[in-house]
Amino acid sequence: MEDLNKPGDAGTGDKTEGNPQTWEAVLAALSETDRTLFDEHVGGLKSALDRVKEERAALKTAIKEARASNEADVAKVTQELQAKTEVAEKRARFLETCPRDISNPAAALVIAQGFDAMRADGSLDEDKLRTACPELFTKEKIPPGYTGKGNKDGGAPKKKPTMNEFIVHNLKRLRI
Q: How many domains are there within the chain?
């Protein structure tokens, strides 16, 4: 194999006699047909490089535009999520502070929002809600029970007599 970097070779830049020292000198030493071929090749490379640079610049602007639109979209989505989070926090705070005698907490939440009975932090202004909708609040209920014949026999229900008790009772009545 031939050694390409031997002394006196034009590509090494050695300062031997007859060898050009600069690239411009090498180009000047080329014949007209070789220089034309070289210029066409370099021109093709330059145009390809220019196209790549233009594509890169176009991509940079597209990325900047996408980032700008994404930032707007992200900001919009972030604001929507923050609003939903605030509503959920207010609902949770309302249900936490909701008194136990409210019969329907979900309805109370909607009514409290309509009658401005919710404070800014989501807690309930109970007095406003009681005056606006007293029917939401349950009254103390007496548990249902058997009263029988008033207080006689302690209010316990009478049990049905068995067959033996029925016969004995009727025999006593007949006095047999």
A: 2
